[in-house]
Amino acid sequence: MSTIRDVGKMAGVSIATVSRVINKSGYVKQETEKTILQAMQALNYEPDPIARSLAGKSTRTIALVVPDILNPFFPEIAKAVEKEASRLGYTVILCNTDNSLDKEERYFQVFEQKRIDGVILASYTLGAVQIKKWQKKIPIVVIDNRFPQHPTIVSIISHNRTGAHLVVNHLLEQGCRKIAHICGPMGVYSAKERYMGYEDICKDQDWFSPHLIVQGDFQIKESYQATIGLFKRHPDVDGIFAGNDIMAVGALKALVAMGMSVPDEVKLVGFDGISIPLVVPELTTVAQPIGEMGALAMHHLVELIHKRPLASHVQVLDVRLIIKESSTTRASKEFVT
Amino acid sequence: MSTIRDVGKMAGVSIATVSRVINKSGYVKQETEKTILQAMQALNYEPDPIARSLAGKSTRTIALVVPDILNPFFPEIAKAVEKEASRLGYTVILCNTDNSLDKEERYFQVFEQKRIDGVILASYTLGAVQIKKWQKKIPIVVIDNRFPQHPTIVSIISHNRTGAHLVVNHLLEQGCRKIAHICGPMGVYSAKERYMGYEDICKDQDWFSPHLIVQGDFQIKESYQATIGLFKRHPDVDGIFAGNDIMAVGALKALVAMGMSVPDEVKLVGFDGISIPLVVPELTTVAQPIGEMGALAMHHLVELIHKRPLASHVQVLDVRLIIKESSTTRASKEFVT
DNA sequence: ATGAAAGCGCTAACAG
DNA sequence: CTGTTAGCGCTTTCAT
């Protein structure tokens, strides 16, 4: 591996000048620049990122923190973030927290130590106060969560409440007369918004009862149990809005176990729009623009890193209802070839 | 942030001595060490990893290369790798290649440049020759693949052929009389082994025909099409062994689309044992010890990094058949609470 | 427009 | 056992 000194020597200039052309900083005569560029080519020179980091500041590395990489939502985020990062010349380190505050704290310490340039944070455990604390030391973009009381926290989120409206209206159109909701953790903004969206529309229906809302935790298992419990109390539920796709899977499994058919007896809708078709029948869901969220998060993070002002700290993206089999009256059996 | 010099000053010793205690290298008087440790505490000193990397060699960073982070198999690997890496004080950078040779090459160039300590490589596109080329520059552990012709390539894989035997025998026991196989890319060792395992047992059955083997590519979509095609030619197939879980999902969707019931008319088995329950009915599958594979890969990689000899270059792990609903005659409907 | 020189914070001979 | 010193490869004033 050749160094900046080799290039300087070959081009007959000082390393300072070489550095200038590497960084496109300061003035360099066209001609000199050309000579240097040629020398770089000839020597197959690549600036050493570690030395640059030590001398300068940036490590061109960002961290992606997710609560549970096994939930397909996060691989999709990861894919988008990584793609965009790669495009921008950044490297992504992956951090799985298992929803543990402790791990999150430890990671952030590592980030500071390793001089990570920025963090894309998906967390339902870390509070606004902690985030703001770390934010002083390192740029952070929050994804799929927000803190309305703390508008200085940059976040990317989608229209959860509107999405919930889409779900409930769709279910009503499909003829449902008793729609239940399996909600996510109420401490989580997006879960709460989805819940409120459900309530917005349902609370005025004559069949409505608060008992139709059961608590999940964004995991399959809990949702399975919740669904079983729900039907013990309300065997006549004919529509379920699950707070995310994973919980919809749990609900579906419960329904099948109880011998109920989807969508004939109960219609089921999820939320997230994860692209891997999890179940048969395929799930109707509200698709968040996951790829866009990841790319946008990366984009905003870079703006933060360069201390450029952001047009808005909170970006709310549109969602759309993807209607599949789990919520529509079964059509004639056809199959695509 | 305090530096090694601050610590030296405070403890009244040279930076060399401080460095010695940091690295536990060379001799340091007990007493001196204590003083230094105290100074480190007092100053809240943390050695700068970047400076260490520049002066020394290791970056304590490894790369995890996966072909498709959306396939749930890889998040499971990622989780295990990251967990073990984190435990060992390593950071993991995530690289998604979309099965593109080009991207893989580019990533390896970045690894070299960034002085990544090692790579855990899941790839079905990179050939043994390329791997050996890179291996000269950077330690590599291959996961879920192997190159029998090139025993110097360290790899972690499981008993795919045996797993396939388990599947076929199980299907036969369940009364299947015509078992098809949706295989993965024949260039991929594990896919081939699974295929051979299938063939080992099936080729002597009176119903056997090579046309019962259809080509998939480890993706849902292709598998769906393959299944449709298969049944056009062989409507009497009553058992399917899919080369991985994702393809089993594709097959299931096709079967449902064609109006066939699983497991009543056709029994279906996958391979991988991904932990997220993908479909209803739940999939019978051959579980690879995914977590163990990830952890072991990380472990071996660290051995390579430290140039310690490996007991064996190729480690083959046991698999086990997980019997679920997709392959067993439907039992009476009970549900767990 | 270019160069000289002083670091960034640490490791690793080498010398005592 | 400990200190001195020379880098690692680059960025960045400060001169010229």
TrEMBL record, chains A, B:
Residues 2-56 form the HTH lacI-type domain. Coiled coil: none annotated. It holds the Pfam family Peripla_BP_1. The keyword Chaperone does not apply. One of its GO terms (molecular function) is DNA-binding transcription factor activity. SMART domains: HTH_LACI. InterPro entries: HTH_LacI (IPR000843), Lambda_DNA-bd_dom_sf (IPR010982), Peripla_BP/Lac1_sug-bd_dom (IPR001761), Peripla_BP_I (IPR028082). The keyword NADP does not apply. Keywords: DNA-binding, Repressor, Transcription, Transcription regulation. PANTHER family: LACI-RELATED TRANSCRIPTIONAL REPRESSOR (PTHR30146), RIBOSE OPERON REPRESSOR (PTHR30146:SF95). This is LacI family transcriptional regulator. The lineage of its organism: Bacteria, Bacillati, Bacillota, Bacilli, Bacillales.
